[in-house]
Amino acid sequence: MSERIALHEGAMEVSDAAGMTDASAVSHQIRFDEDLCTGCGLCEAFCPMEVIVMGEGAPRVVHAEACWGCETCSGQCPVHAIRIEATAQAAQETGEQLAPPLAEEVREQYREWARVLREVLGLRWHPVAVSLIREGEPLPDVPLPEERLRYCQALMAARRGRALMMPANRHACPDGTSILGLSPIPKKLASGELYILFHKLDSVEAARRMVAERPSLPPRSVRATVTCPLDDPRCEAEVVAVIGTPEQMMWLSMATSYYTGHRHDFHASGYNAQCVETTLIPLTSGEINISFGCYGCRASSDVDDSLMMMGIPVSLMDEVVRGLRELGRRAIPQSRDKVYLPPF
Predict the structure, then answer these.
(1) What pTM was estimated for this model as a whole?
(2) Which of 13, 169, 258, 324 has the most CB within a 10 Å radius?
(3) pLDDT for res 277
(4) Under 8 Å CB-to-CB from 118, ≥6 apart: which residues?
(5) Where are the alpha helices (DSSP H) in the chain?
C-alpha cells in the first residue's frame, strides 16, 4: 500500500482563546492511501477548514495546523482512502489558578435532582450538567480529553458517567464550536456551501437562512465547555441535558407545566441539535427545549434511533423536579400500566 502522511507536530507556543497553548493541543496525522485515491476532490470540497487542496490529481495538505480532526474528509471519501489519527499530548498545566470547587450544598442539590429524574422517569443514563466557562473566568478542575471530540460526543460521554472540559483546542466540530462561542465560524459554513455539499438543504439561500436564524454566542466569548454527570458535578451548571425516550420527554414537559399549565413553544429543526437546541436555546431563552438530534450527533455518537433530547435551564430545575415528583405519585405509573386499555 502506498501511503502519504501529512503531520502537524503542534509544537508552536501560541496562546489561544481557551487559555491553553498549541503545545497542549491535539494535532493530527492525515493519511492518504494513494492506491485507493481516485482524485475526485471531495476531500477538498468538504474540508470545513480548507486544509486539503488538490494538486496534480491528488490531495495534499496545506496549513495542517488548522486541522480539527473532524473527519469530514474521511467520512465523505467514497473509497475510504483517508485516515485521520490524533497525536494528542497529555494536557499540560496552564499555571493559572483554578476555580474553587463547587459548594457541597450545590453538589447535593444536583445529586437530588439527578436521583429524582432517574428514579421517576426510569432514565437509563445520567442527566448531564452543562457549563460554559466564559472568557476571563477561571477554569474548573475537570479533565481534558486527550484528543478532540465533538460537543455532542462529550454530552454522550457525560451521560455514561465521564466528566470532560473542552477548550477550543479539544473540540472537533468547527460548526458547534463556533455556535457555542469558542471560535469564529469557518467561511464554508457561514456561506452555506458545506450544507449543500452534504445535501442537507436545497439551496445556498436556504442554508444561509438556517445559519442566520440559529442563535450563537460571540466568537471567543467562551473559554471551554464542561459536561458532567449531574450527580457528579464539577462546577455550577447552566443547562441540564436529558437524553431519553419520547415518553420520558413528555413527562418532563408536563412536569415543567405542572404548576402553571403553560404550553411550550419548542424550537427544533434537525440542525445543530446538541449545541443549539439542547444547550443554547435553553440557556438564552430560560425555557426548556427539545431536540430530535441532528445529522452530526447521530452520525458521530452512540445515541440510539429511539432517543431524543431535552435541555432544561438550571433556573427551572426546582420546578421541574417538584412537578415530576407529583406526576410520579399517580399519573406516570397509571399511564405506564395502561389502565384504560380495553382487555382485548
Answers:
(1) 0.80
(2) 169
(3) 97
(4) 126, 127
(5) 42-46, 72-76, 104-121, 151-159, 174-179, 187-190, 193-197, 204-213, 246-257, 281-285, 295-300, 317-329, 331-336
